[in-house]
Amino acid sequence: MKSPWPVADFDQVRRLRVLAAGISGARVAERLIPAPFERVWAIVADLENEFGTFEPDMRRVVVRQVGDRTEAYARGRLGLRARFDVDLDSGWCWMQSRFLMIGIAAAPAPGGTLVAATGGIRVPGRAALLPVAALPANRRALRRLAARATG
């Protein structure tokens, strides 16, 4: 029997766009990377070894499993530290700390992999980001990711 309800089937990039649309101040940067999805996503998903190669503000990330949850402990280039709750799946990475949020999504696309990124300084207790320099930083991260995946 056909359902009377409309069905929306989103790939992970569309999912990120929808989620970001509900967050005040969030901006999404996108880039088509001419490399297979598996190669691009292997870099993104390796938080401990690869994340800092493309995310400009991350120097070191340590990942821990705490029961059924994933946590990441990150140290930034300026020495700041944060504990992130992490939702990591194929094509999907959402990391949220008390003051920071990072979202990266990817989907296979003609000519390679479409990758989208959002994030920035989070307003605690609200679905809001301070958009100060977030979009340029996300664009820079995607440029660095593209160079890493195609180099």
Output the keywords:
single chain; 26% helix; Alpha-D-Glucose-1,6-Bisphosphate, Chain A, domain 4; globular; 151 residues; 4 helices; eight-stranded antiparallel β-sheet; alpha+beta
Report on the structure:
The chain has 151 residues and is an alpha+beta fold. The protein is globular and about 55 Å long. Strand 3 (69-76) and strand 4 form a beta hairpin. The protein is 26% helix and 39% strand.
Topology (SSEs and partners):
Blueprint: H1 12-21, E1 29-33, H2 37-45, H3 51-54, E2 58-66, E3 69-76, E4 81-89, E5 92-96, E6 100-109, E7 112-122, E8 129-130, H4 134-150
Antiparallel strand pairs: 1-7, 2-3, 3-4, 4-5, 5-6, 6-7, 7-8
Quick take:
The chain has 151 residues and is an alpha+beta fold. It is built from four helices and eight strands.
Q: How would you classify the helix and strand content by structural class?
A: alpha+beta
Question: Cα distance, first to last residue?
Answer: 50 Å
Q: Specify the CATH homologous superfamily.
A: START domain
Indicate the CATH class: Alpha Beta
Number of domains: 1
Q: What low-confidence regions span 5 or more consecutive residues with pLDDT below 50? A: none
**Count of DSSP helices?**
4
Mean pLDDT score, rounded?
91
What is the name of the CATH architecture? 2-Layer Sandwich
* Overall strand count: 8
**Percentage beta strand:** 35-45%
| Major sheet attributes | 8 strands, antiparallel
If you consult CATH, what is the topology? Alpha-D-Glucose-1,6-Bisphosphate, Chain A, domain 4
Backbone CA Rg: 16 Å
**Which overall shape is indicated by the principal axes computed on the Cα atoms?**
globular
Order of SSEs? HEHHEEEEEEEH
Oligomer designation: single chain
Binned, the helix content reads 25-40%
